[in-house]
């Protein structure tokens, strides 16, 4: 079930209404049932994988807390979950690479004789469940004794399939909290959801039309077309993913749950390292706490810190998809940060600390965006070969005239839609600027008088309804991160 589907517009109000009508003691059972139904709308049989991950990590947490050989139980829990993740997400990738090697030695390829469909959200709920087990091992939390409450923590439907990847220290304890209906909280939650729908339907899905045309036929649309499509993809993936996280956050807030912020104006970052502190914060934090720090973090010298950074980002690339172009994307972002570390040391030795000013900060932001956007090309391209072919086209095809002859308006977006997209991006830029300056626009809107508040509500609502991009028969478009 997609957030931007008619089914969800029926499902969510019904869940919320029943949630506040039934007795407090059994509300978590209702949310658990709703969450499993929500997940089963994609493929009912894959709910068994969700149940397996939940059961293994629940029992693992109890065993770690109760018995002496804690590391053994942690290891078994991690192996069991990662084995399932590998089988469903990376098996085909591993077989393709093995067959490529066998072919080099003129050995017959291996045909497994079956295809595996990637279960939606498996990377997200697997990492969330493993994070809980590790937290119990580290004695940061006590093991949950109620299996059904723990099952709700793993499967909570607003953030189940695309995050944020919640920590047990935040979400699990909220399962047992008393949540009463609050009109002001509901109003703010709906405003947050509306903003998420604006990001997804008005910006991301509109940008996707142009991006899909160019990336789908980059031979015909080379040079400047690819440059603009790559710039728009940076906007598309941000609004698509941040849109989902924002809708999830608003939906959870209506029911009294507080989800973590997953994006903090990442394109205003002044370095790639800062970008990753602001982009997909829940995943970046997960890798920092459960991989980077256990590897040694920055405690074992500069070279080890740089190696650990590269390992984390290569693994992060593989987490995003079972393809080498994702690994290259992750490696590029890791490489950027290693170079940044070298540059910081070199600059410090040569010129010492430099005074900060607006021009320098703007230049840093622009350079950071260019570097990040360059890496997005490998993320979006269908293969490494396509990515390098597109890079070659960007450097060799001199078609600057398309910027002025109206050719850009013939790639799925007419002149009206193209300029409206730029206007919507400008609105996004303004709101993100306030966010970067730690100004909570949602709080400020909620503090305004009734007339101002409802004017903002109606503007957002009309923008989503009138200017959102909808498929044939209003078919909902899938969120990009569902494939991870």
Give the proportion of residues in helices: 55-70%
Tally the structural domains. Answer: 2
Radius of gyration, CA atoms, in whole angstroms: 24 Å
The parts where pLDDT drops under 50 for at least 5 residues are none
What do the pLDDT scores average to? 91
Which structural class fits the helix and strand makeup? mainly alpha
Percent strand equals under 5%
Counted by DSSP, the helix tally is 18
SSE arrangement, N to C: HHHHHHHHHHHHHHHHHH
Termini Cα gap: 16 Å
Number of strands: 0
For the largest beta-sheet, the strand count, sense and barrel status come to: none
Overall 3D shape: globular
What can you see in these coordinates?
By secondary structure, this protein is mainly alpha-helical. The chain has 2 domains: 6-181, no CATH class; 184-483, no CATH class. It has 18 helices and no strands. It has helices at 6-21, 27-40, 47-66, 70-104, 122-137, 147-155, 168-175, 183-216, 224-254, 272-278, 281-292, 302-320, 324-350, 358-380, 384-396, 415-436, 441-446, 450-467. Helix 1 (6-21) runs antiparallel to helix 2 (27-40) and helix 13 (324-350) packs antiparallel against helix 14.
Short key terms for the protein model shown above:
single chain; 484 residues; mainly alpha; 0% strand
Quick synopsis:
With 484 residues, this protein is mainly α. The chain has helices at residues 6-21, 27-40, 47-66, 70-104, 122-137, 147-155, 168-175, 183-216, 224-254, 272-278, 281-292, 302-320, 324-350, 358-380, 384-396, 415-436, 441-446, 450-467. The chain is globular, with a radius of gyration of 24 Å.
